[in-house]
Write a structure and sequence with these properties.
seven-stranded parallel β-sheet; globular
């Protein structure tokens, strides 16, 4: 299986496709940057910590990267999996915790909620490392309109120049090299904050009740509570990812 679920994602009925994070060493000794526009976030990335470092987990993520980077038939491989009955709508309306209204959503997304469609998060680590790779996921979204595909990404230029189907939603994730291209008043974006209280104080809306809120909330300003990883929290010292990235660029 290429698409998996952890406990949190399973509760949200979300499937996940994962790549390794940032720069990795390939079996032939060469290196590959999966997250081309990662900035300061690379220093605080949860996907470079804990269980993500277990050999079995790292092996799975590397296998996924090998598939989408080197196999010209990778779209068909994942499409074959998405054809399975577990990815069909349940027939029962979805209730997303924290989503008080759906009037702001497009009709196709409201229909997806109504029929209990499945969701695929593209990457809980890694990013869209090329135009061709993003194009593969666009093809999959077009082929499976009953599934909602969504992603956090730091590839602002790439997404601004791409046309996505209405069942492929995204949010720009701050803390990257292209933060300056994100208009915070007109473009959906997410920043990582020390605590939920900090999210509210900054005028952002938290997605902590369900990861789907990052693309379903009416707000364009999404707050993500920082992972409770002590050495990362100490290094961030109460800053958001965007604040830390601004300091990195200044220095």
């Amino acid at each position: 299986m290429y698409l998996t679920q952890n406990k949190e994602m399973k509760a949200d009925r979300v499937w996940n496709f994962t790549l390794p994070a940032w720069v990795i060493e390939l079996p032939d000794g060469s290196h590959f940057n999966v997250c081309r526009n990662a900035g300061v976030c690379a220093k605080f990335c949860y996907a470079r910590n804990g269980t993500y470092l277990f050999p079995k987990v790292k092996g799975k993520h590397l296998s996924n990267l090998t598939l989408v980077r080197d196999d010209p038939n990778w779209v068909e491989e994942i499409a074959a999996e998405l054809d399975h009955k577990r990815f069909k709508p349940s027939g029962e309306p979805r209730i997303v915790p924290g989503l008080a209204s759906t009037s702001h959503l497009s009709q196709p997304v409201r229909d997806w909620l109504e029929v209990g469609g499945q969701a695929v998060r593209i990457h809980d680590s890694g990013d869209f490392f090329s135009e061709e790779y993003l194009g593969g996921w666009i093809t999959l979204a077009e082929r499976f309109p009953q599934i909602l595909f969504y992603a956090y990404t730091k590839e602002v230029k790439l997404f601004e120049s791409s046309v996505l189907p209405n069942n492929f939603l995204y949010v720009y994730s701050l803390g990257g090299k292209q933060d300056n291209l994100v208009n915070k008043d007109t473009m959906r974006h997410a920043d990582v904050f020390p605590e939920i209280e900090d999210i509210i104080e900054a005028g952002y809306d938290s997605q902590h009740e369900s990861d789907l809120l990052c693309v379903l909330l009416p707000s364009l300003k999404i707050g993500v509570p920082q992972n409770n990883i002590k050495h990362f929290k100490k290094r961030l010292a109460g800053r958001t990812f965007s604040e830390a990235e601004s300091e990195r660029k200044r220095h």
